[in-house]
Amino acid sequence: MRRAVLLLLVMALMTTTVGCGDDVLGGNTGTTAAAVSSEAPATTEAPPTSEAPATTATPPPTTTMAPATTATPPPTTTTAPATTASPTTAVAPPTTAGTTYVVNESNFFPDPLPGSDQAHGSGCVVPGGSMTLTDGIWFGFAEGISPGMITFDLACFWTGAAAEAKALEDGEESFDFYIRNNNPTNRQVLIAGSARVWYLDATGDITLIEIAPNQWPHPSSYLLCPGEYCSVWLYVNGGQATGIVEQYLP
Questions:
Q1: CA torsion sign, 189 to 191 to 195 to 196?
Q2: pTM listed for this prediction
Q3: What number of other Cβ atoms are within 10 A of residue 173's Cβ?
Q4: How far, in Å, CA of 175 to CA of 173, rounded?
Q5: CB 137 within 8 A of CB 233
Q6: Per-domain residue ranges of the chain
């Protein structure tokens, strides 16, 4: 019985293999290729997809701010001190030590001296406004005379073109000469014991005659001295009148 079953299985197997026509494999007739049912290989699952690493946000590059620009201060300009103009110094009448002012007997009328503003003698401006006459030759009026002292009213005496110009400034007229006496201040001037004095003699021709200091004022003088019309030149040396000359006025 077992043999019969085995035989039937073998026959069934052969029938199944050869039955539906001859399959030619590889071009060789009669060669039967056993049908091998190969299972498709198990599909290998792709390895789990690795998650992409978390994207690390790259921080923006740190911008280093440039240090604040320090404004360079403008160079300090040293301002040179203002140039001070030298004050104009008026030329004062000569007062240099050692200078002696003496009467010129050949011409009793003195010339203008430096700093006199063209006036004869030393002019009528005492340096520094001093109440004491500095050394020089000064014109004015002997309003008072006492032993050893003159009360003197200083004035200016111009001639020629200078006289015309000064008179025009004052709204006056000149007659070959012009006298300006606009300062009422009187000065006390000592008379030196050795002073030389000339007065205008009116007994004949009006001429200058020398007398001793203690004889002045002389009664024969053309001028009424002392007084506001007693016009004289004082030659001052060392603060004292060493020469006195009366001046004729028409």
A1: positive
A2: 0.62
A3: 10
A4: 7
A5: yes
A6: 127-246
